[in-house]
Records
---
Amino acid sequence: MLRVLLTSVALVSVCGAASAAGVVIDAGNARPPISKYIYGQFIEHLGRCIYGGIWAEMLEDRKFFYAAGSEESPWKADGQVTMAKDNPYSGEQAPEVRGSIAQGKLALRKGKEYVGRVVVSGTGAVVVRLVWGPNKEDAQEIALPAVTADYVKTPLRFTAGGDTDDGRIEIAGEGPFRVGAVSLMPADNVKGMRADTLALLKELDSPVYRWPGGNFVSGYDWRDGLGDPDRRPTRKNPAWQGIEPNDFGIDEFMVFCREIGTEAYITVNSGRGDVAMAIEELEYANGAADTPQGKRRAAAGHPEPYAVKFWSVGNEMYGDWQLGHMPLEKYIEKHNTFAEAMRAKDPSITIIAVGATGPWSEGMLAGAAEHMDMLSEHFYCQSVPDLAAHVRQMTDNVRGKAEAQRKYWETIPALKDKRIAIALDEWNYWPHDSIRRSPK
């Protein structure tokens, strides 16, 4: 055994005597190496994490979930605007316009290019304007090709002639014409994502990203995020405020992971979702191109399987705030059903189960240990006035969860020959009154 004495350089005089502090290092007492996944990231369809953060889309409600001109809508109407329910392009309605609709509060920079598209049907001449100032010349106008009874998608490209944080896009014509969808992004976007955000995330160099949640996942149908983004349905965000345009689905998430050089970690919906939904999602991600869902992925331009390793069955199902929440005993059964089916579909995956230190984790480990590889744990901390105590919350919480897990290893019979590790896949400081959940 190698024993090394490191002598302190600080000599402290006590009553005329000098003393030296020392540290003994036992190099033969090595522990397992620290996981390369020690500092992963978690992204969710919440606030501006995805839209306005990672995703480069500048327009809100771009497929008109809300009636243009209504209080809820970011679109202002000038002239006669009604919401047509027959033959919408996406969702359940499309604005039929005689006059114009416009969306403001756009940040534009002089000389910067912006690209997009608009889907229009109807009659008459239609123009799209990007406006950056109060004068007539403070705008660029694009005249669309002849409008027809069928929806036609037209690309847009603008160059802003001035700086503003209150620019706007206008779609105008004598009509009547209908707008099915419209999009606007900075031209330097990277496959639909913000170039500046990606640059920062590459610097962060996190090895794994968990998606799509979080509370969001328990009401999310991953299939809504497939196909032509302009035809994907807009839904009410199932867990948080606002709406979900489904522009950032599983394919976009995987492109995001490839762009920043990270591994994907996907959570399946075990709240309001069912096993069939989870199996289809797993096959879409990892199945060969000749499987039913693999064919669907290949048709979307991704013939090679994504080979996603990490899969979580649900999120925080112990909480009554979670859509689909149920008692522990029932959820153990549900988890095991999901895990068995997912393992049968792809034996190579790592399955993470929902944990919560205490009775829930104990129950999951006792009743589902053979159907998991890791146990998810979460914690959030509030502000504490004392700085040292504020910072210590993090280490204290991590230590507490690790100590509890080691105790479970020794006391739960199902773990006698199996060591279930922790996946600490949500933790942070969070003043809970900063974001309110939508009603269930």
Note: The longest helix spans residues 387-411.
---
Amino acid sequence: YCNGCFTTNDSILYTWLDGSNFSEKIGACQSPEAPDDMRIFYSFGPFDTMEPGDTLKISMAIIGAEGVESGVHNLRDNAEQALKLFKRGYKTTASLPSPKLVAEPGFRTVTLRWYPSQAQSGGPGPATIWDDSNRIAGAFPPDHWRRINPPCDPPGTGTCSQGHACTSEGVLPGGRIHEGFRLYRTEDPNNTTPNDKSWTLIKEFDYADDSFNYNVGVDSVYVDSNLVRGKRYWYAVTSFGIPDLTLFPRPAGGFDSLVAPGVESSIGANATRVDLYFSAAENAGEVLAVPNPYRVDQDYTFENGGWEGRSGAWNENKRLIKFIHLPKRCRIRIFTLVGDEIAALDYDAYQLAQEENNPQLENKGEIEWNLVSESNRALASGVYIFTVDALDAGGGKTGSQIGKFVLIR
């Protein structure tokens, strides 16, 4: 639009001022060959009268994105957010906290409980969050739960607690925007934080008294079943809100409307790890080595249902087997067929629970071994013998077992 920008020729400058030099009233001076040139030129007019002291207010938003209409925070979504923020008087949309989440592992199950009245951070829960500028929430009847008992005090003074903006009559616009919860799960093997793209939506819960979403009803308990023992699971419950409506007056009359989707809390806010361990045995006769046989030509990484980490980070040092259904205190010894001892492993579930400050670990009955001898040498193909001695608190033997596993290279 703006060829020859920033000239000093008065006649050209005037065509800029009255807008006759442009087919559009706002012209971008950025050259396609120079994308780092961020100059912007505004042209307004002509004006029949302009009195001293008259002002013209201009609002401008510069947005960017990685994609135009696809992906997270694309250009279209960001432009809509900029328009919405402008019409709200630059007041951001009220954010919803993720609820407090507790996970209780069982036998091939995990029971999840979350608390709508309490946030994971310890503050108020999502059901209490009020958005002064949400037109859809404000359109509900005064006796609806989204509108009753608004935090305005004292009535009629126009002042409100909790930073809300009431009218001079003491009426609080907007309403409570919470609509429901979304439950996510991932089987990411990471120890600290799962990959953001690995989450899968398991179930959605939403209030059944409105026209938003599926109206299945809100719950705060879910039992995830038919899980695989020996695997790691992550869970998260987010809060999401009702849509928001923004109106834009047309110059010729009427309005254009922009309906923005409701906000959703962060998945990572209450991400909870559950290691569904193999349980401990009452004696030494139930111990197994898995997988058995162990084949080096098989893939035991996370992507193929194994426990040797992600395939992209796998190397020879990640090979391992598990001894499962161990007694809570025991000593495992591995031998060759001719009786040479290769390695010895000590296991104490009680000590582990104390070190990790997690009483549930007292029933953990598994330990990993990296298929390397005590001299740090990789094992050759063959049959190997293992023994398990169950121990009491003083280290005395209470039972024993002999087993074997096969390594195929």
Note: The chain has a mean pLDDT of 85.
---
Amino acid sequence: MSRFSPSYPIRSGYTVLPTPDRVRTSREITGRGVVMAFIDSGFYPHPDIADRVLVHVDATSSRIIEGRRYHTPEWYSWHGQMTSVIAAGAGADFPGIARDAQLVLIKVSTAQRQIKERDILRGLNWLLANHARFGVRVVNISVGGDFESHDPDHPLHHAIAQAVAAGLIVIVAAGNFPMPRLVPPASALDAITVGGFSDENSLDPRDWQPYSSSWGAAYDGTPKPEVIASARWIAAPILPGTRVARSAPWLLQLFGADEAAIRQVLREGYVDLGIPREKALRPDAALFADLETRLTKDKLIDAQYQHVDGTSVAAPIVAAVVAQMLEVRPHLTPGEVRAILTGTAERLSGIPVERQGSGLIQPARALEWMRSMA
């Protein structure tokens, strides 16, 4: 019996479910003609999206820079790469739902490794001034502010109201605190706030479980989230050039390997694995425990992808479904999109209503509803 096994629930016939299959949506409707904006910690031009990025915006200070100079992987690059590729990646094995959408990427993290409300606001204000120039229709925000606010004039609440009034559909992650606590921008009345659930890497509803996402209310008391989506076991690319990327091809060989094969991997891959040669040649229990920890922490699926979790990934799934909707009916208003998403969602048993809103998104049902519209 092997010492090592994958960290995700193993199902027959696949490793981790591709997102379009997971949400049971069409692979023929791909967000073509739709522009999506992502406000996040930072980005990387991953091959799954690079040729469809219209502009990268560095909004970390008042000196906002537009351009494509974001090719060096940094600490802040991974989260935005994750959200944008989950929504719109064109990878063969793990495609996004909106794999033909074009992208506007807005970086808002600071040199202090923080994302504050003022930083999110700076990115939103740039978008308010420039969305028409790039044709943006959908905005994904998978970052959160500092404190709860019930003030309708909170700058983030106000900025999102302006964005929606301008015709943008704003999707915001609820957060991952299992308590009735929402912070701006998730508490913005005009945003579509997305909570999560865990499908346990299974299409069978009998396997599904709640997820520890946040819930609460907008500043006027309106319950949130509006809908929920898958928030666990979601495939996303490993950030190139990182320790995880270097070690993944070797670590993956440990799955199902016998003792002799494990020792062979260590002898050949110790440099990329970051293991001293002496330890690799004479592995002990401590080294095996460390490798087990790394396999769990790195969440590897294959040499290019890992599985991720959080409402940060549930939100771009919903944003990508909205891009599908706009491909079918480009002139949908934010209010119509909200009504269709919530009107076709389905509540799940075992999850309190206040934690799921209208329930789990049903993309196929939403698309069918739109096709029947006069």
Note: The longest strand covers residues 192-198.
